[in-house]
Amino acid sequence: MSRTTLLSLAQALGVSRTTVSNAYSRPEKLSAELRERIFATARELGYEGPSPLAASLRKGRTDSIGVLFTDDLGYAFSDPVSTLFLAGVAGQLQEAGHALTVLSAPRSGGSGPMSRAMVDGLIVYSVDEDSPGLAVARKRAIPSVLVDQAPETGTACVNVDDRVGAEAAVAHLAAQGHAAIAGVAVAAGDSGAAAEQCVLVGNNATSRSYVVRERMVGWRHGCEDAGVPPPVMVSCPANDAEHGRHAARLLLEAVPRPTALVCLSDELALGVMAELAAQDLRVPADVSVVGFDDSPAAAMAQPPLTTVRQPARDKGALAAQLLLDRLRTGEAGSSQLLATELVVRSSTAAPAADAATRPADPSRSRKGRRHAGRSDR
Amino acid sequence: MSRTTLLSLAQALGVSRTTVSNAYSRPEKLSAELRERIFATARELGYEGPSPLAASLRKGRTDSIGVLFTDDLGYAFSDPVSTLFLAGVAGQLQEAGHALTVLSAPRSGGSGPMSRAMVDGLIVYSVDEDSPGLAVARKRAIPSVLVDQAPETGTACVNVDDRVGAEAAVAHLAAQGHAAIAGVAVAAGDSGAAAEQCVLVGNNATSRSYVVRERMVGWRHGCEDAGVPPPVMVSCPANDAEHGRHAARLLLEAVPRPTALVCLSDELALGVMAELAAQDLRVPADVSVVGFDDSPAAAMAQPPLTTVRQPARDKGALAAQLLLDRLRTGEAGSSQLLATELVVRSSTAAPAADAATRPADPSRSRKGRRHAGRSDR
DNA sequence: GCCCGGTAGTTTATCGATTCACATGAGGTT
DNA sequence: AACCTCATGTGAATCGATAAACTACCGGGC
Fold it and tell me: B291 and B220, same structural domain?
């Protein structure tokens, strides 16, 4: 009455379990004729083939690789950079015949599916260092590759040179004469508590995300090198255009208004540009904007966005390759640092001589300006 | 010497396997004190916790859901519609605490990872009906939900009303006075062989993809209802902007030139618009363009693209929900048909009186027109 | 005449847990 | 005093396969 299994099939045929197993996975170990007979009876009995679960348990291999994301998987599939990254991973895995399992490491409320995930290896993608899910992954001692994550010795890492890229962004602005640069960051509060709102965080903020930290450091270094003041920053609770808009609103109220806005991502930058348009400020005439990532939308924006390109897809492909190599050889690979490239488009230009004040009333005092900015909402 | 296991841990403690197992998964079955002692020894011995593989084998559950795509996973993560779909799926699964495994069903060369995938259920997303991977999935009798796939009795299906949506697209064009409508489709050749190039396929083409077929039928019906000739079509080998451009090149050579182009997707439509811009043709003044999907890029295009909206994300969420329900109840759910909605933006308008001929010759007869259309191949 | 190697299969041990039925003792009931 | 119940644990059976070592047979080389 029970389901057909390797054993019941073998008994029905009067051969051994092993022989049936071989019929499926080692054809050369038995005669073609017997193999055919086995398949025929299998069809007859409705045998579905060897159970992957049982086979994996025995073999100690699952032929599946996990990718661990922080928290919201919806984001992992919505954000252009992380999808591109996944595309890179998936391409390599597919070639190697492996499946890809997407795992989420919730920020709170248990460790998520990581504790039950059946994977041979793990790609950890920009996960909070104090995430319970990550802790479980460590405890399980799954061979891992860290991506967009603080390097650890003994583990292969793939990172982008975020710091240098961010430096280049502000260097570019400074070279054009900008001296009042503000930044739009993500989850950059010092406190662990995730803010619900965009908030001004001054210029000494830190973050739980390694990438965010690195880019912020890059901004500061760039400003320092150029001899301009470090950027005042807004921290957004999430990396999307809506929050970028809100952040811009906050930053544009500053007096004097910044002449350039650097953003932690293109998504944020797009939101920033939308807000600028809504406030009738021209890009780049009134305010310059720089993004990060060079996502597909950056080139299509109006105006096309100056940004720092990172090879998101290659990053994924490389991480997958490193992990597959590691599984094959047993040796933890080396760490890799991928280069970024400043892509200058049309969202940046030298600040107009009077840019900081243009839309406010011509009779402008410090005070008047500030109020005008506010009443704009 | 071997790895720590439930058994070795139990022996070290002098308790039974069962008790250790309970310590992990059924805390109420033993005293808190013993439980603590077990965990302490576990830490000491470096026990990683119950093996998910072994547990799944025994329990008969993996808490993981598969999503089966055709062929190229890189595409699955690049295409805006399929990523949105995945986002919907992932969101639901995450809530349910399930992992998501992405599987590819190669068009050729074996059945891919589907034969070894350890999943409780499967979402089949727009997979060729003759795909070997799909055949394996069927043989394994995994509870499935079909999405963008020809409905089958006994299996839950989620589909979008592609036919009605496509009809609405051409109806909209016809209502504005367009009578020469051409179509850009994907892999629409009758032959199984996937073409490497975009090719003109007349107006009776079919496709191995259910969605493509439905949309093409919708176009034809729409034209019929409006009393305009059915669209001449180009079939692209893949669904991306580059091929859309190429398709446009082919279609614009027709004499008389079509006044409107309907596309199977927004990605194709974006390519089409790029080509029109390159040929100095204005949209919509010279040629109207309609897309399908209402992907995020459609609204950002120049000009904003008229398109048929489909709820890609909801589709994913619904499919996941249906599958989870099915696993819970054991009953195959019902089939669902989601509505589409025509979103009129600025890429469509009435054809100019001389639009069909502006750059071409003004002498046009019925006959001339028909022959011109044919001789074009 | 003997040993050798290859082919076709079989036997036995194992992968690492969960489940179900049952044992034991403490405390409370009637 | 006999009976029940609850809280804690135990033992045996099972989930479904694969790996490694071993048997039996057959033809060939020296």
Answer: yes
* Best mutation target, B2, B53, B67, B305, to test chain A (most A CBs within 10 A): B53
Decide if B18 is inside a domain. Answer: yes
pLDDT in tens, A185-215: 998 765 545 567 899 988 878 888 999 999 9
| Dihedral sign from CA coordinates of A311, A316, A322, A328 | negative
Same domain flag for B89 and B155: yes
Contact A86 B77 (CB under 8 A): yes
* Residue given tokens 């001789």 in the structure block: B375
Q: Is B31 (CB) below 7 Å from strand C? A: no
pLDDT at A362 over 70: no
**Same domain assignment for residues A228 and A358:** yes
CATH number of the CATH domain containing B45? 1.10.260.40
Total domain count, chain A: 3
Q: Determine contact: B203 vs chain A, CB below 8 A.
A: no
Beta bridge partners of A309: A293, A341
Mean pLDDT of A299-320: 97
Specify whether A144 is located in the same domain as A190: no
On whether both A137 and A172 belong to a single domain, the answer is no
What is the Cα–Cα distance from B182 to B186, expressed in whole angstroms?
14
To the nearest whole Å, the CA of B93 is away from the closest chain A CA by 9
List the domain range (segments joined by +) for residue B38. Answer: 6-50
Residue numbers in A 8-37, CB below 7 Å of strand C? 14-19, 22, 28-31, 34
Nucleotide of closest approach to B9 (CA, C1'): C16
Residues 6+ apart with CB under 8 A from B304: B298, B345, B346, B347
Q: Is there contact between A59 and strand D, defined as CB under 7 Å from any strand atom?
A: yes
The string of pLDDT tens digits covering residues B235-267 is: 999 999 999 999 999 999 998 999 999 999 999
Contacts of A142 in chain B (CB under 8 A): none
Percent of chain A beyond pLDDT 70?
91
Do B33 and B82 belong to one domain? no
Q: Are residues B234 and B184 in the same domain?
A: yes
Q: Which residues pair with A69 in a beta bridge?
A: A104
- For the cut 90, the answer to whether the pLDDT of residue A61 exceeds it is yes
Which residue of chain B has the CA closest to A302?
A: B300
pLDDT at A365: 38
**pLDDT tens-digit profile of B109-133?**
888 899 999 999 999 999 988 899 9
The answer to whether A76 contacts B90, with C-beta atoms less than 8 Å apart, is yes
Q: What are phi and psi of B145, to 5 degrees?
A: -125, 130
Query: Are the beta carbons of B53 and A53 separated by less than 8 Å?
Result: yes
Strand C contact with B255 (CB < 7 A): no
Is A26 exposed, middle or buried, given 0-12, 13-18 or 19+ CB atoms closer than 10 A?
exposed
Report if residue A55 sits inside a domain: no
What distance in Å separates the CA atoms of residue B258 and residue B184, rounded to the nearest whole number? 12
pLDDT digits (tens, 9 = 90+) for A77-133: 999 999 999 999 999 999 999 999 999 998 888 888 999 999 999 999 999 888 999
Residue A276 shares a structural domain with residue A143: no
SS3 B64: strand
Q: Tell me if B156 is assigned to some domain.
A: yes
